[in-house]
Every structure is written in structure tokens, then in C-alpha cells.
């Protein structure tokens, strides 16, 4: 009997984990239906929260008074994080790792943290013409901090102090990448 319970628990976990991406769709389907379906729905919520925690647990690590942020960029023009949360005044060490294989001139990635109120599209368009300056517009005052541009297999690290509380945007300023590679840097 115990073995059967274990098997069922394992089976349920596998099913729930594999359903994670379909959560929203499932929620819509199960609304208004009764009994066990609702129960499954709640468990899916729990699974989602757990996997988010696990993700941020790996990507943002606090140790010895420093917040280590592990940001990655890939050959599909994607960051692993669309949101980074830190506290005001915290010392942040951000490591950007290019987990793809394409070279910098084809699929370069960086991390550019922009001041609040910056027009991201306008900034990105100016950046796209600044190939001679690592795709950072010359003389810009819109950048709080940025990494260098890197290609597949490379990594780069910057350290900075988290600015005052608020929501800031970050992008990759390689031409066209900001459309997918952007996120919120939230300072609490
Ligand atoms: Cu990029």
C-alpha cells in the first residue's frame, strides 16, 4: 500500500510539473467545474510557485552582504531573467554569461540598466548605431551601469550599488535585441 502511494505521488508530481506551462489554459478550462479538478488546479499553482522560487534561488544569491545575480543570454536572443529584485543600497554583483555559441558580431549580448524615464525604444535605436562604442550611445546620460558586449561562451561581471527604490528597465543594446531582451530591475 505504501509503495502504491509513493508511486501515485511521484506520478502526480510528474504530471503536474509537465503541465506547468499550460497553467493559464488549464485554469480557464477548470473554472466553474467541480471537485477534483479544482484541487488539481490549486496544486498546479503550488508547483508554479515552487519552480519560480527554485529559479530565482539559482539566479539571485545573497551571500556575505553581496547580491550575486546570474544573468544569461542565449542564441535565441533571450535572457533567463525578465525580472531582477534587489534592495536599495545593496551591493550587486551581476554576472552575464552568454550560454550560446554564436560570436559577438552576430549574437552579442550585454546588460544595460537604464535610468527611470528613459524611452527604451529611442535609446535602443541610438545604441544600434553605436557599434564603435560597444552599442552604448556616446555621451548618453541614460545609463546607470552596463556590462561589456560578449559573444557565445563568454562571461562578464560588473559590481554596482543598487539605486534608490523603484522599477528600472534593463535591455541588451545589440541591434534589435531589446525587443526580446528586456526586463524590470526592481529595487525595493
Ligand atoms: Cu543581445
Description:
- The protein has 2 domains: 2-57; 64-187, Immunoglobulin-like (Sandwich).
- It has 188 residues and is of the alpha+beta class.
- A hairpin with a 2-residue loop joins strand 1 and strand 2 (66-73).
- Helix 2 (23-30) runs antiparallel to helix 3 (36-59).
- It is built from 5 helices and 9 strands.
- The strands form 2 sheets. A 5-stranded mixed β-sheet has the order 3-9-8-5-6, with no helix packed on it. A 4-stranded mixed β-sheet has the order 1-2-4-7.
- The model is unreliable at 7-57 (pLDDT under 50).
- The protein is globular and about 35 Å long.
- Copper (II) ion binds at residues 73, 108-109, 172, 174, 177, 181.
How would you spell out the order of helices and strands? HHHEEEEHEHEEEE
Tell me, what is the CATH class of the largest domain? Answer: Mainly Beta
Question: What is the CATH architecture descriptor of the largest domain?
Answer: Sandwich
CATH homologous superfamily annotation of the largest domain: Cupredoxins -  blue copper proteins
Radius of gyration: 20 Å
CATH topology of the largest domain: Immunoglobulin-like
Taken together, the total number of domains comes to 2
**Shape annotation:** globular
Residue-averaged pLDDT: 80
